Amino acid sequence: MFKKLASLAIAATMLVGTFAISANAAEVADDNSVGAEESAAVSAEDSSEVGAEASSEVGAGNVIKFDVKNSGWNNVKSVFCHIWKADGTGTWPAWQSKKEKCDYDASTGIATYDLSKTGNDIKSSDGKIYCVIFSANTGMQTYDAIMSGACIGDTLTASTTEKYENPQDSAKSAIPAFWTNNKDCGPQKVVTSTGKVQGTSLADGTTDLTIAADFFISYYADSKKMDKAQSVIDTLKVSPTAVMEVVANKEAAAVTAGTKKQDAVDKEMEAIQKVLGGLTDPTTGEKVNNDDLNKAQESGTESGKSGQSASDITNTGSSSSGSSSSGSSSSGSSSSGSSSSSSSSSGSVKSGQETTIFLVLGSVMVAAMGVAFLARKKKEN
């Protein structure tokens, strides 16, 4: 009789343990199923919203406009829009080609250009990375205007009173144009071939120092143009020493990229340093120190070789480290979030396992107590 009771107790223990394990497994499966469904639902909803927003943005008018009438352009029959990246990268339509032709409404005097015709994805979130010129069949054309993604839907209007010098060819001129709603964009700020500083807007990745450096790199061998060196430095209010560092950075980057030979760069640097060494620093009112120029050249060469952008160099010659800090912060945030999620999931599984073990051990203890009780009862009888 005792053996039968003991067998029943053990069987009961096994049944209870099996039930506990099955119940826990079912609970975990249900939790995973619900989590997957919720995740899929959220993902689908977010994807749908993003898709709708992107579609809405393009559909609402992925265009820019030019006010021919208020620009004072007469006898216009065809208007063209020439767009390119300010840093010269990418593939863009040719000048006044079919892809650059605008829809021109002579009754309103507004020419509209569909940006998708460029074959490039121009987003509203893009910074000041584009340049644009509007021109007409009459020979009229605007001066290079800086454009950001925020300019999508905006209108450019050319000045009726001003004329700018063509940056590369002083014998030619162009008309500055201004955006109606984006005043931070507009005529590109440059130093022309004659040493004239013109324009109001700097493209992303350029500074007063970089455009000054470009002037010296382009025309260092032209003594007449170098006669304008002090005027360029004074107008931009930049330190010749800082300009030297930017020049060195750009030249070193060019050698690294293989677009220039080191021996040619060495000659250019020697000539440019000689010019800068004879200038007065408008930020201090003092003559440039040659030792400082040498140090600036060394620093710029090293930063150029390492891939640092010339636009990070400030007027005091030091470089910015903000982007590195930002990148570190972003990486840390992402890593922390991922770790937290993983830890939470692991904790839930661990908790379920502990519950199962507790139930099984509890059942075994209850069964053992039952067997002991029956054995004592039998002994007393």
List keywords for this structure.
381 residues; 50% helix; 8 helices; alpha+beta; three-stranded antiparallel β-sheet
How does this structure look, described?
A hairpin with a 4-residue loop joins β13 and β14. The chain starts with a helix and ends with a helix. The longest helix is centred in the first third of the chain and has 60 residues. It has a five-stranded mixed β-sheet with strand order 3-4-1-7-10, with no helix packed on it. It has 381 residues and is of the alpha+beta class. The protein is globular and about 65 Å long.
Radius of gyration: 36 Å
Given the C-alpha coordinates, what overall shape results?
globular
Estimate the strand proportion: 5-15%
Overall average residue pLDDT: 79
The number of helical segments is 8
| Main β-sheet description | 5 strands, mixed
The helix content is: 40-55%
Distance between the termini: 13 Å
Spatial sequence of strands, sheet with the most strands: 3-4-1-7-10
Q: Indicate the low-confidence ranges by residue numbers.
A: 1-6, 8-60, 319-360
Please trace the helix and strand order, writing H or E for each element. HEEEEEEEEEEEEHHHHHEEHH
